[in-house]
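Q: Sequence in, structure out?
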Amino acid sequence: MNAQKLSKRLEMVASFVPTGAVVADIGSDHAYLPCYLIHKGIINKAIAGEVVKGPYDSAVRQVRAENLSDKITVRLADGLAAVQESDHVDTITIAGMGGPLIVSILENGKGALKSVTRLILQPNIHAKVIREWALEKGWAILDEEILDEDGKIYEVLVLQRGNMTLTEEEVLLGKFLLAKKSDVFIEKWKKEIENWERVLNSIEKAEPSPEIIAKREELHHLISLVKEALKA
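A: Exactly. Output:
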């Protein structure tokens, strides 16, 4: 992967960036995504934010090597603290983290979201937490994609301002992903059911306690919910 050729998951993130957007890429690592977006003529200006000194230095070097220092500002900052009002950022990308960490970045930096109209988020795990946050905070899901890269399954969620309603299964599985029911989506959730069934088998042998009983009921419910959704 480099600034000319992204990984599949980052290519998917890039595909949702509107032409002419001002992007803040949070947790930018080598700043490959903003460099790529500018090389492709999709955007003209970006912020690359990194909280860790090593990746920050890598991003600075990469931007210089690509001769993009006049178009990409690299900042060492925690989360959305990398975004300043004068940047006029309208699109934020956050990729390669867990859903809860992405939500905590958005929540802790909510002041920086004032001018933002689109969030493109790629959680490695727990996308459900992002959907729950979106429901609560006035963001609507515009689209979702799921892909397999090197044996790992990733989801990409695209949010815009607005209200939405989601059923319990749509919060868990993704409304758009559920409608598309791709092979990768089916594979992901069949594996999840297998994992839940393994856990269920192990706790069935445990001494009953209020916690064990609650966990057993939760697993039965999840397995039933997902099986029904896959069947529909």
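The first helix runs from residue 8 to 15.
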